[in-house]
């Protein structure tokens, strides 16, 4: 079987599964376009409230296929450039998806697989899951936005250690540093992510989408710009049917219903 991105549904959750049997779910450029297309479709589907990115067979992703990368090194540089641009498109699609995206990581997330996990809004990891940015160990440098994400999520020294030394870091350590949201028993990350997605599905889709946008823009906005953006989103949410439903339900001491 070849590398593929499998899409399935459970209730209001879209599950995207990285699958490459025998290669620890190593990535292939064909996955990139499929991922962007699937996420674009999910964006327009109001019945989808959350997205989970996971790997088949209790292993998240080993990153790029080294045999393919070595072969690419003897071709024109444009070949590698195109593949990296398509990976960046996938990363951007995860960040821009208006639905919350959860990475369910068991086994390991290595290289570009780690980059994909970092692009998700939330990360659930198995107790012994490893996160590896091992490019330097094979004479390469990070892609998929890894350096951008790590330098904004971790102390500079730890980001440098992970990218230069390239040794595995347990999810439990990254949990202590705030990069991983939840640590669960091994081989249960997907189940835990599904349960979390069910909780998120009960929230206001409008509020969740606007909050995700606020978080994204806060990384580059000045405080004054963020004040303006917050004001706009607050007022729009206040006058949105879901805002009225949420406030009314709270006052009536009942569970809100967001259609």
Task: Describe this protein with a few key phrases.
259 residues; 2-enoyl-CoA Hydratase, Chain A, domain 1; Lyase 2-enoyl-coa Hydratase, Chain  A, domain 2; six-stranded mixed sheet; three-stranded mixed sheet; 16% strand
Give the helix/strand layout:
Layout: E1 4-10, E2 13-19, H1 29-44, E3 50-55, H2 66-72, H3 77-96, E4 101-105, E5 108-110, H4 112-119, E6 122-126, E7 130-132, H5 146-153, H6 156-165, E8 169-170, H7 171-176, E9 182-184, H8 189-201, H9 205-218, H10 223-238, H11 241-251
Parallel strand pairs: 2-3, 3-4, 4-6, 5-7, 6-9
Antiparallel strand pairs: 1-2, 7-8
Give an overview of the whole structure.
The structure is a single chain. With about 260 residues, the chain is of the alpha/beta class. The protein has two domains: about 200 residues, 2-enoyl-CoA Hydratase, Chain A, domain 1; about 45 residues, Lyase 2-enoyl-coa Hydratase, Chain  A, domain 2, CATH 1.10.12. Helices cover about 50% and strands about 15% of the residues. It has eleven helices and nine strands. A six-stranded mixed beta sheet has the order 1-2-3-4-6-9, sandwiched between helices. β2, α1 and β3 form a beta-alpha-beta unit. α1 runs parallel beside α3, α3 runs parallel beside α4 and α5 packs antiparallel against α6. The chain is globular, with a radius of gyration of 19 Å.
């Amino acid at each position: 079987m070849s590398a593929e991105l499998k899409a399935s549904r459970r209730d209001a959750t879209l599950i995207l599964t990285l699958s490459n049997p025998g290669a620890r779910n190593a990535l292939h450029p064909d996955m990139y376009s499929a991922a962007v297309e699937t996420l674009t479709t999910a964006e327009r589907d109001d019945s989808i409230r959350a997205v989970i990115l996971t790997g088949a067979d209790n292993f998240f992703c080993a990153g790029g296929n080294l045999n393919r990368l070595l072969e690419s090194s003897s071709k024109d540089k444009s070949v590698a450039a195109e593949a990296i641009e398509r990976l960046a498109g996938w990363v951007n699609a995860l960040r821009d998806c208006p639905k919350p995206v959860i990475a369910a990581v068991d086994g390991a997330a290595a290289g570009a697989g780690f980059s994909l996990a970092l692009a998700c809004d939330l990360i659930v990891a198995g107790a012994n899951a490893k996160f590896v940015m091992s490019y330097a160990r094979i004479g390469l440098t990070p892609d998929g936005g890894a350096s951008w994400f790590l330098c904004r999520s971790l102390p500079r020294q730890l980001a440098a250690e992970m990218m230069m030394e390239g040794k595995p870091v347990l999810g439990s350590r990254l949990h202590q540093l705030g990069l991983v949201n939840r640590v669960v028993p091994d081989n249960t990350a997907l189940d835990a992510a599904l349960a979390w997605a069910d909780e998120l599905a009960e929230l206001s889709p409008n509020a969740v989408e606007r909050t995700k946008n606020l978080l994204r823009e806060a990384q580059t906005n000045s405080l004054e710009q963020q004040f303006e953006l917050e004001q706009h989103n607050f007022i729009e949410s206040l006058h949105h049917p879901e805002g009225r439903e949420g406030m009314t339900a709270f006052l009536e001491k009942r569970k809100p219903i967001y259609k």
